[in-house]
Automatic annotation (TrEMBL):
Gene3D superfamilies, A to Z: P-loop containing nucleotide triphosphate hydrolases (3.40.50.300)
Residue intervals of the ABC transporter domain: 2-244
UniProt key word Transport: yes
Organism: Plantactinospora siamensis
Pfam families: ABC_tran, BCA_ABC_TP_C
UniProt keyword annotations, A-Z: ATP-binding, Nucleotide-binding, Transport
PANTHER family assigned to the protein according to its UniProt record, in alphabetical order: ABC TRANSPORTER ATP-BINDING PROTEIN, CONSERVED COMPONENT OF ABC TRANSPORTER FOR NATURAL AMINO ACIDS-RELATED
Protein name: ABC transporter ATP-binding protein
GO MF annotation list: ATP binding
């Protein structure tokens, strides 16, 4: 579904992302971990198109997307969580999702089409809110949501683009401990119907609950990419995390 082959990003002589190769199968959940500064965000930026790689290939299906801008990759089914800044805090939650659905589907100038299309857009927005457990908060102003609810809204915005591959960058950041289990279940429900997830997350307990396989980055290179059990037992991985709790 998504694959990177010898993907690299260098600044001068320094390899921030160093010949990373991995594959994400249809319906698979791949967790990505690594100590601070390992290159996780940089790798994400290469995959989404925020940064141009210095070398290597990024395949979405059988198409090399490495040279495509982010919006073209999104059109091909690669979705990443919106940053909080793309949420309109003064608009209701439902309106935020409706706008995202509309932006994805594009508008029609024909009046007779517009009414039907509007109903479809509202229905799609409501379905996305329902999937993340925010249906009851549709009328609330987005700016008033708690952290955990904001993360759910970000996922609903992501679903508005109907992605086949979902990239989640630290979805638990800032979420209070009591809200984590519910968010874990929302994220778990994202795979299925062939959808795949690649998630960077610092909370190992969350990764262990969700991931089919775990990729470990260290100094820009992939140390391991295997089942959670095998990765946790890998002495090189344990060494990379020396001083940090795995
Ligand atoms: N634009 C840039 N210019 C120079 N160095 C950069 C740039 N972006 C990232 N780096 C460096 O690349 C390394 C990897 O950074 P990156 O943010 O990708 O790591 P990370 O694994 O996401 O870290 P964290 O877990 O702390 O978020 C760091 O040493 C960082 O300082």
């Amino acid at each position: 579904m998504l694959a990177a082959h010898a993907l690299s990003w260098r600044i001068g002589e320094v390899a921030i992302v160093d010949e990373v190769t991995f594959e994400l199968a249809a319906g698979e959940f791949l967790g990505m971990i690594g100590p601070n500064g390992a290159g996780k965000t940089s790798l994400f930026n290469l995959i989404t198109g925020v940064r141009r790689p210095s070398g290597g290939r990024i395949l979405l299906g059988d198409r090399d997307v490495a040279a495509l801008p982010p919006y073209r990759r999104a059109r091909l089914g690669l979705g990443r969580t919106f940053q909080a800044s793309s949420v309109f805090g003064s608009l209701p939650v439902r309106e935020n999702v409706r706008l995202a659905v509309q932006a994805y589907r594009g508008g029609s100038m024909r009046l007779w089409r517009r009414a039907a299309a509007d109903r479809e857009v509202v229905a799609a927005a409501d379905a996305a809110l329902d999937r993340v457990g925010l249906a009851h908060r549709g009328d609330a102003l987005a700016g008033t949501l708690a952290h955990g609810e904001k993360r759910k809204l970000e996922i609903a915005l992501l679903l508005a683009g109907e992605p086949r591959v979902l990239l989640l960058d630290e979805p638990m950041a800032g979420v209070s401990a009591e809200d984590v289990p519910e968010l874990v279940e929302v994220i778990r429900s994202l795979t299925g119907a062939g959808r795949s997830v690649l998630m960077v997350e610092h909370h190992m307990d969350v990764i262990l609950q969700l991931a089919d396989r775990i990729a470990v980055l260290h100094h820009g290179a992939l140390l391991a990419c295997d089942t959670p059990q095998t990765v946790m037992a890998n002495p090189t991985v344990q060494e990379a995390y020396l001083g940090e709790q795995l």
